[in-house]
Amino acid sequence: MAQALSLTHISHAYGPDVTLSYPDLHLEGGQELVISGPSGVGKTTLLHFMAGLLRPTGGEVRYGELLVNALSESGRDLFRARNVGYVFQDFHLMPGYSALENVLLGLGLAGIRGAAALTRARESLTALGLAQRLHHSPNQLSTGERQRVALARAVAHRPALLLADEPTAHLDPSRGGEAVALLRRTAGELGATLVVVSHDPAVVNAFEQRLELGKVAAAPLPKQPQGAGRVPA
Ligand SMILES: Nc1ncnc2c1ncn2[C@@H]1O[C@H](COP(=O)(O)OP(=O)(O)OP(=O)(O)O)[C@@H](O)[C@H]1O
Ligand SMILES: [Mg+2]
């Protein structure tokens, strides 16, 4: 069951020269948000805060009752393993391993191993149209297929929070549209909250709720019923 995700008063100093600050945002469990904005504005960094991959130097990240930014590194690892599916921009697949093994590795991190993991991994790859590609390694797959393996790995442990960084960056427009549809459908099936980072207008326009970094004044996202509302431009 997806919990509410709230980020408040977030700022981050990457050393003395780069300080990023963010508008507050609040998503109810199961909502969708797209984040856009120019290169270097801090989109990936924001996704990393949500995933517990990085701790902001200021502000709070809350997932339900959990204050994610206050957790230790191992606490954040556990939070991520239990709750988060992350689709990296460049996929982060292990080159020496098959599609199936890549998904099994992800499940292992979430503590799911053995026969149960094998069933899950096969199921999620099959659901993404990769039943004939289970034993191919990433270099034997097309870019779109690698994208789907990365997505299968992100969703196999049934995360409640699905985060995707530029999921269409390597795809042609039609494959890009499919990838976003797949993310939304998968999140919908899991009842997961979905946050997508993209600079692609076709992707941005597909979402009702949008946060454009670098443009929005430091104002909170309005708290509105599920699916409603947009960030004021
Ligand atoms: N590890 C780091 N050390 C120092 N500065 C960093 C580090 N990671 C990111 N930055 C800086 O923080 C800023 C935001 O980076 P981030 O990767 O979040 O941007 P982005 O919006 O995702 O950009 P892009 O659209 O190009 O992916 C950039 O100016 C970047 O140079
Ligand atoms: Mg980025």
Can you tell me the CATH topology?
A: Rossmann fold
Number of helices: 7
Radius of gyration based on Cα positions: 17 Å
Strand-residue proportion = 15-25%
Order of helices and strands: EEEEHEEHEHHHEHEHE
Q: From the coordinates shown, what is the CATH architecture? A: 3-Layer(aba) Sandwich
- Which structural category do the helix and sheet elements fall into? alpha/beta
- Integer count of domains: 1
Largest sheet: 5 strands, antiparallel
**Which CATH first-tier class would you pick?**
Alpha Beta
Task: Provide the descriptors you would attach to this structure in a database record.
alpha/beta; five-stranded parallel sheet; Rossmann fold; binds adenosine-5'-triphosphate; five-stranded antiparallel sheet; 35% helix; 20% strand; binds magnesium ion; 10 strands; disordered C terminus; 233 residues; single chain
Structure description:
This protein is of the alpha/beta class. The protein has one domain: P-loop containing nucleotide triphosphate hydrolases (Rossmann fold, 3-Layer(aba) Sandwich). It is 35% helix and 20% strand. It has seven helices and ten strands. It has helices at 43-51, 73-83, 99-109, 114-127, 143-155, 173-190, 201-205, and strands spanning 5-14, 18-21, 25-27, 32-36, 58-63, 66-67, 84-87, 161-165, 193-197, 210-212. Strands 1, 2, 3, 5 and 6 form a five-stranded antiparallel sheet that branches. A five-stranded parallel sheet has the order 7-8-9-4-10, sandwiched between helices. Strand 8, helix 6 and strand 9 form a beta-alpha-beta unit. Helix 3 crosses helix 4 (114-127) and helix 4 (114-127) packs across helix 5 (143-155). The longest helix has 18 residues, at 173-190. The structure holds adenosine-5'-triphosphate and magnesium ion (MG). The site of magnesium ion has 2 residues, from helix 1.
